[in-house]
Batch of 3 targets.
Target 1
Amino acid sequence: MPMTDTRRAFLQIHACVLLWGFTAILGKLITLPALPLVWWRMLIVVGALALVPRVWRGLRAMPRRLLLAYAGIGVLVSLHWLTFYGAIKLANASVGATCMALATVFTALIEPKLAHRRFSRAEFALGVLVLPGVALVVGGVPHGMRLGIVVGTISALFVALFSSLNKRLVEHADPLTVTALELGAGTLALTLLAPLMPAIFPAFAGPLLVVPTLHDLLCLLALSVLCTLLPFTLSLVALRHMSAFAAQLAVNLEPVYAIVLAILLLGEQRELTPWFYAGVAIILGAVLVFPLLSRPQRIGHAEVLATAEAKELAE
């Protein structure tokens, strides 16, 4: 039987989500602290995008006001990635992925204000539904990992902020150009933040210009190319042939993939209690119901690839 465009798109979007699921695993495997890890990841992606003529044409054509707006969003993106990998370092990949599932809940509460749309009581109910799951997750991890949950929750909040702002501006520029601009601004922001980090949050701090070990370099290349650039390209193709509901449902499965991978590859189930997984089930159950509550939407551009870890692709 020949493969239809819809079936091919379905496989492509799930391949994207699976690759994004590896971001938490690679974050745990890389020995660099959170700050240099994120800095190197962003720098590699920006360096790759700088080789694309389309990016430079888009930057030259962009109004200064819009350029500054995207740059500001890029700072939020860098803080999201910093706190996401910080949460993984402070806890583990399963905890980091679970916290990212909260991004959908925060977005449901924040997006109406930032994107100028009506507030949804159904989406607010989604936020209330996940609270018992959060309580179980907190109670199901060792005491030493709870700071990781706090940092991961802050990371999910950053996701809600920058993804909502991106949705508001997404029609105004080419997605690849926006990605390069946002990640470039984020790289610069982290460079300026680096000298202050030992005083602000020593657990995240680390020298930026130290050359990574061969192990870390290979993982960083996989993180940047296989888990960032490749899924971005695939998602741009896939979203032309599938509904917003199907895309949202697939992306909401990312924490499931990440937690399963963490169990299979890192054996993290030995660090966590059944209460943790009961809480995860409640959170993910609510998040997977989210597309049913959302209004039908069209799909235009994919969101920028800076929204890699558990974000909405449909606008």
Target 2
Amino acid sequence: MTKPLTILLAAPRGFCAGVDRAIQIVEEALSKWAAPVYVRHEIVHNQHVVSRLEDLGAIFVEELDECPTDRPVVFSAHGVPKAVPAAAQARDMVFVDATCPLVSKVHVEAERHHKSGREIILIGHAGHPEVIGTMGQLPDDVMTLIETVEDVAKFEPKDPTNLAFVTQTTLSVDDTAEIVAALQVRFPEISAPHKEDICYATTNRQEAVKVMAERADLFLVIGAETSSNSKRLVEVALRAGSPKSELVASAENVDWDWFEGVETLGLTAGASAPEDLVQGLIAACRARFDITVEEITTAEESVVFRLPRVLERT
């Protein structure tokens, strides 16, 4: 007799509007200019997405100087330092910026604070492309990266009454709230974003996991090791009460020994993971267990971002 397994399936999950737009930008660029189209950095952090676009004719590189000047280049959804489009213009290249509009909003906020003469704190993870892109919007030494509450205690500003903070869009909502609270206790006059910088999709996916986690004996998050928002979902599941939580790239990466004693599985996908990977994992479970799928809906998403004008069809 096949063992029963209840799958709690998070909704919303998977692609957000910024990821949808970025992938569509590469597809439309290939349609408009034909292959090859170069893409600086992974368009989104998911190897399945990258491989599919490579099959269509996209070539992924890490630096602009790896691109020929006679082919178009797309900048990834994470955003790039200002020096990158400036270098593309200097080389007379055709380029399309696929930066998520919610990341661009953070860039604009940082510039506004800089023009107002404020010293800026960026809450984020060192080395993440979004952090590199945001810090690269302004001259060196005007933005300080803060990763933890401990960093807040060590930070010595030039003028504690003239500070502002912005954040990476894919952080843990709860961890960021702790860091913001520490900043506001230490620097009561610090300027905050008009609207929270952590994007709606990150927030919604974390909220869904929080609702489901206590019921799940095991929680699986489909996403890449390089995906910040996916890794945060694993942490959120553990913090919200699931005894075990794992990040998997696809069904092929599941260790079925994890399912020993598991009656209820929580399942979600990071914002750059395609839905076919979710369905593939459900199918792999169906081949081994007598499954019941219960979709847990905590929010409805209807956000759509327009494509850059250069790609809009007439």
Target 3
Amino acid sequence: MTTFLWVLVVVLIVVGVVGTVLPAIPGATIVFAGIALAAWIGDFVRIPVWIVVVAGILAALTWVVDFAAAAVGARRVGASPWAVVGAALGTVAGVFTGLVGLLFLPLAGAAIGEYLAERDMLRAGRVGLATWLGIVIGTALKVAIVFAMLGMFVAALLVG
């Protein structure tokens, strides 16, 4: 049974790392679940409670980063609510269209939403680009946070 649980830990962590860059999968939350399960398997001896708590806080921080990143990018250029809705719809559509769609449909959605609101092509392009940059920066921050979580986890396993 213990072997099955450790395999589950590995699967959760791998799926979580992949999910960090895919908006449809709560990557950091899944990584946290893997870390918490690993700590539980070992009765919190090798992986102490404080590491699980810090990993949980970091996982929660990725949710904040996720919601704030695109909004900050859009607000810096004064995007309309239509642009934010367009970026969200573009992100959802991107999940179903592969990596290229995932990278560029949020930009297109924000630009289209802003164009519908303001009827200014240049402004729509700036808003789309700013929103997209916010999403990219947010994703990079989430990846960094998840790797910090994994670093603590691996260090605890090696030291403990």
